[in-house]
Amino acid sequence: KTHLAIGLAVKAAQAGHRIAFATAVDWVARLKAAHNAGRLPAGLVKLRRIGLLVVDEVGYIPFEQDAANLFFQLVSSRYEHASLI
To answer: Domains plus CATH for the chain?
Structure first.
């Protein structure tokens, strides 16, 4: 799955799209840092400007309720705005 996601991301980048790749744990850590700094809404808007966001290793480690909520906010903020793998 990771190899396929990377391949799709490379093709998107070659086509001129901005991409960002990280594990689910890394994305949650970034969102948590933004939330703690009071910048979560702005951080979500910034991430929405990236054409393709790749989230790797979803489901490997269970999230606590707060982390799951932050991850849901990431997914829902991109709905109908940008792509997510």
So the answer is: 2-84 (3.40.50.300)
